[in-house]
Amino acid sequence: MTVDSKLVGEIAHLARLDLDETSVANYAREMAGVLALARQMEDVDTDAVEPMAHPLHAVQPLRADEVTEIDQRDEFQAIAPAVDDGLYLVPQVIE
Amino acid sequence: MQWETVIGLEIHAQLATRSKIFSASSTTFGSAPNSQANAVDLGMPGVLPVLNREAVAMAVKFALATGAEIGRRSVFARKNYFYPDLPKGYQISQFELPIVGAGEVRIELEEGEEKVIGLTRAHLEEDAGKSVHDAFPGKTGVDLNRAGTPLLEIVSEPDMRSAREAVAYARKIHSLVRYIDICDGNMQEGSFRCDANVSIRPVGQAEYGTRAEIKNINSFRFLERAINFEVERQIDVLESGAEVIQETRLYDADRDETRSMRSKEEANDYRYFPDPDLLPVEIEDSLIESLRATMPELPEQRRQRFITDYELSAYDAGVLTADRATADFFEQGIEQSGAPARLACSWLTGEVFSRLNRDSLELSDAPLKADGFANLLARMHDNTISGKIAKQVLDHMWADGSSADEVIDREGLRQISDSSAIEKMIDDVIAANPSQLAEYRGGKDKLLGYFVGQVMKASKGKANPGQLNELLRDKLQG
Fold this sequence. Notes:
The complex is a heterodimer of chains A (95) and B (478).
Chain A: H1 5-14, H2 21-42, E1 62-63, H3 73-78, E2 83-84, E3 87-91
Antiparallel strand pairs in A: 2-3
Helix pairs in contact in A: 1-2
Chain B: E1 3-14, E2 51-52, H1 53-65, E3 73-74, E4 76-80, E5 90-94, E6 103-108, E7 114-126, E8 130-136, E9 139-143, E10 150-156, H2 163-179, E11 192-202, E12 212-217, H3 220-239, E13 247-252, E14 257-263, H4 264-267, E15 273-274, E16 281-282, H5 285-294, H6 299-310, H7 314-321, H8 324-337, H9 341-358, H10 370-381, H11 387-400, H12 404-411, H13 419-432, H14 434-441, H15 447-458, H16 465-477
Helix pairs in contact in B: 1-5, 2-3, 6-7, 8-9, 8-10, 10-11, 13-15, 13-16, 15-16
């Protein structure tokens, strides 16, 4: 895969990032470098290596199914830009 | 051209845990907006998810119920998209290594036909919040109480070939998750939701056609209608020479149609990657074995047992075991009353179900409880009341929650089985109807029914019907 400005633009859009032309060009170059490194690593024989999902060799601890949280809506809503009737208000997302 | 329909379903079952999948907020439905949304659910910076043990256990139970592979090592991944009901900007889901692998369920179709539907996988994920679109001008309101409620997304193979098969499959999964007590199955409240992937292809073609994904289906009836509409739409598109595009469509129940929601081309790119906040989940043998020990009898096994032990038809056994509460109600009725299974079956699926339908009630909310049902069956079985009177008794029980015995005593409905009392009534009726008697004796056998009716009326419906018939025939012969 080649990383060009068009691809960077698409990825930036998915991530809702507003990049100027200079940044797009820089990212295209840097991402191409990252992919080149990945391609280089593909040459290593990894057949006997288990894929790593997490750098820590540990297993997810589980918690008991208990409700221990209390309602702190007022505190959370005090720092929200807009609230009404208990709801958080955001710019309209459907026409 | 002859078209073949191909359907796969994605079912989202909310797991019936007390707290959320990654936080200790309550999952109770219908609370004040955002009163159950804590820092984790709101996606505040610096918080960490901690996995709920019960959600893991419930997913394993589902695997045990469907003979599916259990993902001994499963990994949570971030599914990235932007929508206000998902404050983190990603949903924690599972991608490459789900907790439940391939399995299968058997569905029953009409005329006792069966079909096996493959399960591709089932994975754990968090539910999103709810958006309120029309209450505030130019704004969308967001309630995050639901955000973080555990979901098991159950993905089927594209094995269904008609809307009816899809409904049968969805009902089967619905029944199963309720049997094993991992989801309350309440479709109105959104605890059990279906998305349908629908495509068509010319009969005989091996490759699948382009599919549309239909969302927003919240009842089995709408599932059938939405699929049927979508199939017709795709046939029209293809037969007009155009192409079906891969997209998400919304079912609008009011208009009975599906509408394009968004094209998948861009939205599809979720850029999954393993969630660094969560470690891999490992499932030990000991957990699996302890859960296996708690598994109830499953609907399929119970259905077979009902056919064998109670000599019920496959259809009746299917109806009675579709829902665990109904099957329990039925069995308790038989055990406590000693009445034959067929009597219990016909009364439950007939009189009781019709009253539930009439009053739009679930069995669990009905005024008639299992011990009341057993009491009613027992009084029919020991001939205290006839089937006809039993309907009256049931009406009273339904209205005020009395037991059958209370109603029978209070209303004086005990069946008259005293031969001399019945004979007396017959004599009176015959004496009052000399011309009918003459006609009957002249060969008009049909008049027997008339006399039965008259004596029944005189007894206020309480005469033992068997005795009445026998005695009446004798007397009419003269």
